[in-house]
Design a protein that fits this description.
- This protein is about 45% helix and about 20% strand.
- The chain is α/β, with parallel strands linked by helices.
- Strands 1, 2, 3, 4, 5, 6, 7, 8, 9, 10 and 11 form an 11-stranded mixed beta sheet that branches. A two-stranded antiparallel sheet has the order 12-13.
- A hairpin with a 3-residue loop joins strand 4 and strand 5.
- Helix 3 (about 55-65) packs across helix 10 (about 235-265), helix 4 crosses helix 6 and helix 9 (about 220-230) packs parallel to helix 11.
- The longest helix is centred in the middle third of the chain and has 30 residues, at about 235-265.
- The protein is globular.
Length: about 425
């Protein structure tokens, strides 16, 4: 590596918010099934704590050794609905077990309180889904997701109707905690089985028994590159700049995955290069789009710029590693992106425009605060629209909306930390 490349990487980390957003250990719980839910929970706790006992230490040691921030250490597990199918009983017992594991291990989040119902309900699915509001209200670190559709299977509209009610209940159960329950629940179409990002991470049944997946993020780096570029560049030249930058970022993710895999003694799964913004000024996908020439995020041309950004990030990442997976692309979580928060507050970015943008980004309607009085049926309609976009376009789409109980359009909801804050839209 040349000296200038080393200095460039240091600058990316120190000044442009480049980080390893997460190292996520995926753990299969299929061998923890038992007809007795208490025995099953004991098996789950033993396996997770045994395999992930050094996860946080390895992440912290990597940061100290290489000077690269590893922001989150997380765990994803087999969709818990599958364990409920065998054990019966109250699924919340599993959520409390996962919470104990998270607290013992010191991880930031644990995902997989999930059900896959795109073709219909199997044993355990309905019970788990109905328990989600209680489970998320009683835990701090547990995240939930439900897949309601796929390109092959179509959309389970019964599940769509159910999830509108569940999202609303999650907000109501946690109304004294900024409706945080709804922020820990994602409703998917075409959910990926190797996604390291929360709240939608779960360990797919086709995955190995235990793997390490890495999520890399660097919207601030991409923005910095574009801000220094010649403003007369053509769009294809801008795309090439983004590809080269994505390549460099992904190589760092490859390094982290390789080192973590070796130290933990588990296989390296995938690198997910997703431009996941934070509330920090400059670490914004919206500002990248504006560096491309948009007057403001939400203006005409926004969807086209986002499509080009998403495409260039994916292509640059694929050239850097054979382990690309997960969501890989650009996220547009409103409350976590300073540029989108500003655009929403000024009225330039509205829900309808965000829906159009989800046709070309890597996920969907993410971290959007809506009025607390929004009915469950309206939320179901939002989910149905997003699922239709994903199903027809053979892409992952998702809905993570937060009904702000007691608040209306123009009010604010502040989650703090990486989840940020945002106006009610």
């Amino acid at each position: 590596m040349q000296t200038n490349e080393i200095l460039e990487t240091i600058k990316m980390i120190d000044e442009e918010y480049l980080d390893i957003r997460t190292i996520t250990m995926g753990i299969s719980l299929l061998d923890c099934m038992d007809p007795d839910i208490h025995v099953s929970c004991q098996k789950v706790e033993e396996k997770i704590c045994r395999l992930a006992k050094d996860l946080v230490k390895v992440g912290n040691d990597f940061s100290k050794t290489y000077g690269i921030p590893v922001v989150n250490k997380r765990i994803s597990v087999t969709p818990i609905a599958m364990l409920v199918a065998c054990s019966g009983g109250n699924p919340v017992e599993y959520a409390l077990t996962l919470e104990r594991c998270a607290q013992k291990l010191g991880v930031d989040f644990i995902g997989g309180y999930s059900a896959l119902v795109q073709k219909g309900y199997a044993a355990g699915d309905n019970a788990l889904i109905e328990s989600i509001p209680e489970a998320l209200a009683k835990t701090q670190h547990v995240c939930a997701s439900v897949n309601v559709g796929s390109t092959k299977a179509g959309i389970n509209m019964d599940a769509v109707a159910q999830m509108g009610r569940i999202v609303k209940c999650c907000a109501e159960y946690t109304k004294d905690d900024n409706c945080l329950g709804a922020a820990k629940l994602v409703v998917f179409c075409n959910a990926p089985e190797d996604n390291p990002f929360m709240a939608g991470a779960f360990h797919g049944v086709g995955e190995a028994d235990c793997v390490i997946n890495v999520g890399v993020s660097g919207p601030g780096v991409v923005r910095a590159v574009l801000s220094k570029a010649d403003k007369s560049l053509r769009m294809d030249q801008i795309a090439d700049l983004i590809k080269r930058t994505a390549f460099k970022i992904t190589r760092m993710g490859q390094l982290v995955g390789t080192v973590a895999s070796k130290k933990l003694g588990v296989p390296f799964g995938i690198v997910d290069l997703s431009l996941a913004p934070t509330p920090a000024i400059g670490d914004s996908v919206a500002y990248i789009l504006e560096e491309m020439g948009l007057e403001t995020c939400g203006a005409y041309g926004t969807t086209a710029c986002l499509a080009m950004l998403n495409d260039a990030v994916k292509k640059g990442g694929v050239m850097a590693t054979s382990n690309v997976g997960g969501l890989s692309g650009a996220f547009i979580p409103v409350s976590e992106d300073a540029g989108m928060i500003h655009a929403a507050r000024t009225g330039a970015l509205k829900l309808e425009k965000l829906e159009a943008m989800t046709a070309v980004c890597s996920v969907g309607l993410d971290m959007i605060v809506i009025p607390g009085e929004t009915s469950a049926s309206v939320i179901s309609g939002i989910i149905a629209d997003e699922a239709a976009i994903g199903m027809v376009n053979t892409k992952t789409t998702a809905v993570r909306v937060i009904p702000a109980i007691g608040k209306d359009v123009g009010d604010e909801l502040d989650f703090g930390g990486l989840l940020g804050a945002g106006p009610v839209m």
